Amino acid sequence: MTQKTPVAILGATGAVGQKFVTLLADHPWFEIAALAASERSAGKKYGDAVRWLDPTPLPRHIADMPVLACEPGIPGAIAFSGMDASVAGPIEQAFAAAGRAVVTNTRNHRMDADVPLLIPEINPESLSLLTLQRSQRQWKGFIVANPNCSTIVLAMALAPLHRAFGVEKVFVATMQATSGAGYPGVPSLDILGNVIPGVPGEEEKMESETRKILGANILISAHTNRVAVVDGHTESISVGLRKKATPEQAAEALAAFRAPADVEALPTSPRPPIVVHAQADRPQPRLDVGLGHGMQTSVGRVRACPILDIRLTALGHNTIRGAAGAAVLNAELLVSKGLVPAR
Ligand code: NAP
């Protein structure tokens, strides 16, 4: 890649926006051309507008960049969106209409029938929906979405089992990190030493988005919980299979899972996508959330389930694999396939 693609980050000051900055600051294919956020931040220097939370230091040249308004005239052929979902819908549409490749984390367009809900390792063929999207909406650009942060962990754990044995039923209970609620998120006096059952809207998302990604009408029962963990969503999963499998066969299918060769070659692609842990007390967020620079999904405790067939624990980094890293990988796939409109 000789010339880097200029990109904009919409919602650059938020928890996900900061992860975008970290992942894109030294990216081999992309250069940050614009940082944008709400009118509260627009006009300030990024370093003054942001409450920087990432352990990676904020590069000086990025701290000095101005924060712009989220308007389609700003630079960038790709617009990464980490905006608050209450405002993201029409802004993302305006960027797509103006010829930008909008690569979004937000929920607003995920379930639209003509929007790819993309996990490159699982359903790269979903990009064929862009032809339909362009013709239906008459946009010069397009929108591609990545799934909800809990859905990605579940879909990564289910995809190998679905391919090998056919997944029919799923019971899943999440233990979701506080960073999943953005900044400042849940008040400390609510979450410290506590578990809060129910993450609003996320159970429905896990059920519907997983069905769309895997292209299968799987019966899913999701239970969500917010726990006092900083980063990393952990999930206890039980799976009913069409073709019966032993725990060893299920663990083998998970460990053998690979992305298609063209996806595996992308800079942000985790190799392998799934790490199967043998220890009885893994995966754990504190020990395993950073594997593969936060892009690998960890699974462990693969064992027989007396109600369904197989049960296991899965873990993924919510702001990297579940958000900014997922979107960067999606954008790399779009560039590698020549789908990003020139600018
Ligand atoms: P956050 O920390 O609250 O950040 C929200 C961002 O949206 C900020 O940059 C904010 O800018 C911007 N914003 C708010 N109102 C705006 C407006 N009117 N116009 C333009 N920008 C506006 O939230 P987050 O956790 O980063 O989440 C961002 C999005 O990603 C959400 O849609 C969320 O559902 C999704 N997501 C989050 C995670 C996660 O793990 N956190 C995972 C997957 C998906 P100001 O600073 O100027 O207010």
How would you characterize the overall build of this protein?
Helix 1 crosses helix 12, helix 6 runs parallel beside helix 8 and helix 6 packs across helix 9. The relative contact order is 0.15. The longest helix is centred in the middle third of the chain and has 17 residues. The protein has 12 helices and 14 strands. A 6-stranded parallel β-sheet has the order 3-2-1-4-5-6, sandwiched between helices. Strands 9-7-11-14-13-12 form a 6-stranded mixed β-sheet. Strands 8-10 form a two-stranded antiparallel ribbon. It is an alpha/beta fold and 343 residues long. The mean pLDDT is 97. The chain has 2 domains: 156 residues, NAD(P)-binding Rossmann-like Domain (Rossmann fold); 169 residues, 2-Layer Sandwich (Dihydrodipicolinate Reductase, domain 2). 32% of the residues lie in helices and 22% in strands. It is globular. NADP nicotinamide-adenine-dinucleotide phosphate binds next to helix 1, helix 4 and helix 12.
Report the span from N to C terminus.
16 Å
What low-confidence regions span 5 or more consecutive residues with pLDDT below 50? Answer: none
- Which kinds of small molecule does this entry bind, naming each only once? NADP nicotinamide-adenine-dinucleotide phosphate
Order of helices and strands: EHEHHEEHEHEHEHEHEEEHHEHEEH
Q: What structural class do the secondary elements suggest? A: alpha/beta
Give Rg in angstroms: 19 Å
Regarding CATH, which class of the largest domain? Alpha Beta
CATH topology of the largest domain: Dihydrodipicolinate Reductase, domain 2
Q: Biggest sheet, strands in spatial order? A: 3-2-1-4-5-6
Provide the number of structural domains.
2
How much of the polypeptide forms β-strand, as a percent range? 15-25%
* Percent of residues in helices: 25-40%
